[in-house]
Specification:
Number of helices of chain A: 2
Structural class of chain B: alpha+beta
Oligomer: heterodimer
Structural class of chain A: alpha+beta
Largest sheet of chain B: 4 strands, antiparallel
Strand order of the largest sheet of chain B: 1-28-27-26
Number of helices of chain B: 6
Shape of chain B: extended
Number of strands of chain B: 28
Distance between the termini of chain A: 40 Å
Distance between the termini of chain B: 96 Å
Chain lengths: ~100, ~525
């Protein structure tokens, strides 16, 4: 219970950073556990990024089996999508980097 | 020589079983070689003979039938909830989420991922990794690559009975779509059951047109409204003017009444620059040019008869095959006629007779294309019979430049919108020529065989790179031109027509010498 506040703090801190548009925590089945965006957008991000993360992870492992994926960043014209993968969960943050 | 072997057998021994026995070989016939026969042959020394001991195989290619593929994505709306949780029930989902949030694994994972994530977020906020450091460096122009063009895509008429692609129009925003008008221009030879439909193609999908336009009579010309990209103007084979709104669908939104429309196919239709963006004008071989407002399309707002004797007799009128309008010169327009004469007109003239300002003659046949140079509007290009000619408004007796007489008729032509000295022409032998007269005057800079049948129309996209040309079988080919032909060269603007100015001055001097003869010739031509 005490540790639960750590989670709250962490997520709140992340969301309050400059340029952050949305934060989501999704489990491996695509169920949004915590999200600051609406459900349909979250589910869409979850589905697409989950596949991409698995592909990226397998790419890294194929090249070097001792290596593993720690972080994935996708920079697009409008914003940057950052994905931190875990065994069961995905932490996804969409940020508009300052220009 | 007959080879005969005789053996004897008794009659009583017929039918008896065969008793085989061995005996040594017996020479029956010996034929010695005849050297005289050898004289009929010539000896060959050495003799090369290839022998291969292998399995004989053959190679065969077969092209499978076209297989249409489509890529589709799936959009998930809800995540994969476990079976006992009903995703629509708010209580159950909240309960599920609360359960997950209490999980030890979850807490550890989030805390750890959170710290990595924060690091990257802060990084993003600290430095812009895409910052341009070397803004002042200019790009070095590389202009010595050979000019080339390649076909990007081909759009085929999906109908069984193929029709000619008679006109093309690019979508005004973004140029991702192309409207193609299909009709059969052979007089009364359109096959029964020919469809009247014309199509709008999306450049990404050549398998199926994006939208079909269904008029009551096949369309000869088609133009997007440059102000409102949903509105399309079409000129029909029976002389009517039709208007579509692509948001409303494939059927005609507005149609002019038959009584007040043209009496011949509408060969030219152009949108005018007006505040409302609803005005257009059209020309046809019946000798009339009509102005329309599409809000009230039942009647034309104005009609001009192309009678160059200025008597406004429809019988004397020349049939119009092409129409030209430049928005920078809104009161003037030009008409190319079937008789090979270009008529320059002024819309704002007081009387109808004064609307016709002057004529330019020089072609032997119908003028299929007429366009002012986008950089030098006083000069215009005409394409007709076997040549393409460039004229200047100041020089009325003849064109200032012309190509040689080709082996095939020229069917359409256009200036490049980015390079003042480049223009494109299409011919009935299926070739597209790209001319660059600061580079080479006698021949095209690039000549491409696009297809085996005749090419009928041509349209260049506004960026000067993409060209679409339509053929007699309804096939529209999209070509991309190399950057050498689509980026402006240094000094080109100055060079392009400065030579023409010089030659014009020379022409004027010649004119002064021959004034008597020239005028006489002029009168004959315009009569």
């Amino acid at each position: 219970m005490i540790r639960k506040t750590e989670v709250e703090e962490t997520l709140k801190r992340i969301q309050s950073h400059k340029g952050v548009i949305g934060t989501m925590v999704v489990n491996a089945e695509g169920i949004p556990i915590r999200t600051t965006l609406d459900n349909s957008t979250t589910v869409q991000y979850a589905g697409l990024l989950h596949q991409l993360t698995i592909k990226a992870k397998s790419t890294i492992r194929d090249i070097d089996p001792q290596n593993d994926l720690t972080f994935l960043r996708i920079r697009s014209k409008k914003h940057e999508i950052m994905v931190a993968p875990d065994k069961e969960y995905l932490l996804i943050v969409i940020q508009n980097p300052c220009e | 020589m007959e080879i005969v072997y005789v053996y004897l057998k008794k009659r009583s021994e017929f039918g008896k079983q065969c008793n085989f026995s061995d005996r040594p070989a017996d020479l029956n016939i010996d034929i010695p070689p005849n050297p005289e026969l050898a004289a009929q042959y010539v000896e060959r020394n050495p003799v090369d003979m290839g022998i291969q001991c292998s399995v004989s195989m053959s190679e065969h290619e077969a092209n499978t039938e076209r297989f249409e593929m489509e890529t589709r994505g799936v959009n998930h709306v809800e995540g994969g909830w476990p079976k006992d949780v009903n995703s629509l029930e708010l209580e159950q989902t909240i309960r599920f989420r609360k359960k997950v949030e209490k999980d030890e694994n979850y807490i550890n994972a989030i805390v750890q991922l959170g710290s990595i994530m924060e690091h990257c977020i802060k990084q993003n906020n600290a430095i812009d990794i895409y910052q341009e450091y070397f803004n002042d460096e200019e790009e070095v122009e590389v202009t010595d690559e050979a000019s080339s063009a390649k076909t990007i895509n081909v759009f085929r008429d999906p109908q069984e009975i193929k029709r000619t692609a008679t006109h093309l129009s690019w979508h005004p925003d973004g140029n991702r779509k192309l409207a193609v008008a299909y009709s059969c221009l052979d007089f009364q030879r359109a096959p029964a059951g020919m469809s009247h439909e014309s199509y709008i193609w999306d450049l990404e999908n050549p398998n199926r047109p994006e939208m079909a336009l269904k008029p009551s009579s096949p369309l000869v010309t088609l133009e997007y409204n440059p102000k409102d990209s949903h509105v399309i103007l079409g000129g029909c084979y029976n002389g009517q003017i039709a208007c579509w709104d692509t948001r409303k669908g494939s059927l005609v939104a507005e149609l002019s009444t038959i009584e007040f429309s043209h009496r011949d196919p509408v060969y030219g239709s152009i949108w005018l620059q007006s505040k409302t963006g609803t005005e257009c004008f059209s020309a046809s071989t019946d000798g009339q040019v009509m102005w329309w407002d599409i809000r009230k399309i039942s009647e034309p707002t104005e009609v001009v008869i192309l009678d160059i004797t200025k008597k406004e007799q429809l019988e004397n009128a020349l049939g119009a095959i092409s129409l030209e309008f430049e928005s920078t010169l809104p009161t003037k327009f030009m008409v190319g006629t079937e008789q090979g004469i270009v008529i320059s007109c002024n819309r704002k003239a007081k009387t109808s007779a004064e609307k016709i300002v002057c004529t330019f003659s020089g072609h032997h046949g119908p003028i299929y294309a007429l366009q002012r140079n986008p950089f030098y509007p006083k000069n215009f290009l005409t394409v007709g019979d076997w040549t393409a000619r460039i004229w200047s408004e100041d020089s009325r007796e003849s064109s200032i430049m012309w190509t040689k007489y080709h082996m095939a008729h020229l069917t359409d032509g256009a200036w490049s919108p980015v390079r003042p000295a480049v223009f494109f022409t299409t011919k009935t032998d299926g070739t597209l020529d790209i001319w660059d007269f600061v580079f080479k005057q006698s021949d095209p800079a690039l000549s491409l065989k696009v297809c085996d049948e005749a090419l009928y129309c041509l349209r260049v996209q506004d960026n000067g790179c993409l060209i679409a040309c339509g053929s007699q079988q309804g096939t529209t080919t999209l070509l991309e031109v190399s950057s050498g032909l689509s980026t402006v060269q240094r000094n080109e603007k100055n060079i392009a027509f400065s030579q023409k100015k010089q030659s014009l001055e020379m022409d004027e001097e010649v004119e002064e010498d021959n004034t008597g003869e020239e005028e006489g010739g002029d009168e004959e031509k315009s009569a």
